[in-house]
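Long-time lurker. I teach an intro course on protein structure, and each term I like to show students one example going from raw sequence to a predicted 3D structure in token notation. This year I'd like something fresh instead of my usual example. Would anyone be willing to generate the tokens for the chain below so I can use it in lecture? Attribution to the forum is fine with me.
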Amino acid sequence: MRSGFGLLGPRHGRHSLSVEQVDSLALPIGDDGVVIGVDAEGQPAVLGLNRPTPYDVVLIGGLWTAQVLALRAAATGARVAVETGRAPAWMQMVHAMGGGQNGMSVHDVGRVPPQGSSAGNPVLVVRDCGMRPPRGRVVSGPWQSVLTLLPYLSPVAPRLLRQARLVGVQRVSPDEAAEIGRALALPRGDVDSLPTLADGVTLWCADRDRQYVMTQPTDAETGLFGTPRRMD
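-- Reply from a regular --
Happy to contribute to a lecture. Here you go:
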């Protein structure tokens, strides 16, 4: 180094690139988010919940998966607000994470206050309000995603599925699978597989993209939530 002038620069050929080689450089932008499990090839499946545009997710599945997603979203720095009619099922997680000092809060149905989300303070609202969730006071917006949990298909499900940018489906009955298949335009093979999915497996659907994901808990998640299960 020469004082005041920084580094001299590349001293060997392997330290430099030609103009043609520069175009081959790429950065993995856009694949950050919450690791929700592994795909069929065993590769990490990542869900980007912190977005500058409104993002609605519907999960037709079990409480176990919703809680794991909420916990992992909080671990990425997002604040998590849970709207639920079964607060004790969520308070266990809040206490384990420090009694609400880490940005996770639990609210009665219809009582979620404005969250004040921003790029530096993203929010995930989890709506665990049963089969017929009322229209929420707090909706998705910039840097605020909403995850609605449905234990089974219900009369309000078609409306929610139409509004959602992403839909996750766990094991359902054959009749429910047929109705979901029509709503999401799923191939016959996916419709037939839905009643046979193992615990912890979710079919995630976004537009025409579909991916089966196995959510594998960490030791800490197993200690807090137990093993993967579809039924609550």
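Some talking points for your students: The first helix runs from residue 19 to 22. The beta strands are 34-38, 44-47, 55-60, 79-84, 104-107, 123-128, 144-150, 166-169, 201-206, 209-214.
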